[in-house]
Design goal:
Order of helices and strands: HHHEEEEEEEEHEEEHEHEHEHEHEEHH
Largest sheet: 8 strands, mixed
Oligomer: single chain
Strand order of the largest sheet: 1-2-12-3-13-16-14-15
Number of strands: 17
Length: 353
């Protein structure tokens, strides 16, 4: 996994570097589809989902679903002094944005910028402690005035925030877009391993669009595939940092393996089989409870699309979620892909009935 995911030009790193804010995912989805095409049958739907399949075409299906979009920004106004006003594509804590580098996709190519705010020296009263609102931020591209900025950037151009992948100590990696390119990569890698075996069922993986905003990507692909079982792979909160309440998140740590979720709306039989297979194959894993309501993942969207399917949720532990510098452990990606491949190669038409 270290060689596969090291910060060079290998496929998983290319996925992290690809531009793909929610609703503008085509570059990242195109790359995912290109990689899947090396070993699977690939199709695209009308909104950009990349869907790859292996195994008997007439057999019941297992769907492995990781979303390919990342949170980003969209330009809403260009000031006369040349700075850009923005709003979020997906959910940001604006406090993490101040001073971050951005890459803005314009009609003539990508240009750099930086997110600015009023310096602390000029803030008044409780402004210093009350946090930052998105409306108080802007992007500075170095334009001398609004006319120069408008000659390059248009309203509706999008931007991605932060840096590409950087190796930390051991098998840890920091990058923007780990949520949920790691899940999309794990689905792709699991499918590759299944393709190298002898699956008795159809296995379909997807790099899914629009999770961070509308959820329509998962609904559309699930309705198209009509799987018997859907396994959604997303990130989950790593609790091995200060001030995280483990009673709320669970005890999962970086390096502890994929987190198998149990709870309302999720199939106990699929979860139990994932646990059994993890134990049989020596795959480190954790458990997480979902008491009900929204999971804030594509599980909600797949269940809304096909209420009769059996659904499971795997979480990859992640620090600093929805920030420009998320942190994961590459061993958890490997374990997630290995567990899904084991489940798919173990599945039979009878077991999915």
């Amino acid at each position: 996994v270290i060689a596969c995911c090291s910060p060079d030009n290998t496929p998983s790193i290319r996925l992290l570097e690809a531009h793909g804010p929610s609703g503008r995912e085509h570059e990242a989805a195109d790359l995912w589809a290109e990689l899947a095409g090396e070993f699977a049958t690939v199709e695209r739907d009308r909104i950009g989902n990349a869907i790859a399949s292996v195994g008997p075409a007439d057999a019941p299906a297992v769907l492995l679903l990781g979303h390919i979009d990342q949170i980003g920004l969209i330009v809403t106004h260009i000031e006369d002094d040349g700075v850009l006003r923005v709003r979020g594509l997906g959910g940001w804590d604006p406090r993490v944005l101040v001073g971050q580098p951005v890459s803005i996709r314009t009609r003539t190519g990508d240009i750099p910028g930086v997110i600015g705010s009023v310096p602390i020296h000029l803030q008044k009263g409780d402004e210093r402690t009350s946090g930052t609102e998105m409306k108080a931020l802007w992007i500075d591209i170095g334009a001398k005035d609004g006319d120069e900025a408008r000659g390059i950037v248009r309203i509706g151009d999008d931007a991605i925030v932060g840096h590409g992948p950087v190796a930390l100590m051991g098998t840890r990696l920091t990058s923007r877009a780990l949520d949920d390119r790691v899940g999309a990569w794990a689905a792709l890698e699991a499918l590759r391993r299944v393709a190298a075996g002898s699956p008795q069922v159809r296995v379909v993986a997807t790099g899914c669009v629009l999770e961070e905003t509308l959820g329509d990507g998962a609904r559309l692909v699930t309705d198209h595939v009509q799987p018997a079982v859907s396994i959604v792979i997303d990130v989950t909160h790593a609790a091995d940092v200060p001030s995280i309440e483990k009673g709320q998140t669970g005890p999962q740590r970086l390096g502890s393996g994929p987190v198998i979720t149990r709870g309302l709306g999720l199939d106990e039989g699929v979860a139990a089989r994932l646990i059994e297979l993890a134990e049989q194959h020596g795959i480190a894993h954790g458990m997480e409870a979902m008491p009900g309501g929204s999971t804030h993942t594509d599980i909600d969207n797949t269940l809304n699309a096909v209420r009769s399917l059996r659904a499971a949720l795997l979480g990859i532990p992640l620090r600093h979620m929805h920030s420009p510098a998320e942190v994961c452990d590459l061993a958890d990606l490997e374990g997630t892909a290995a567990l899904m491949a084991a489940y798919c190669l173990d599945a039979t038409p009878a077991s999915l009935a």
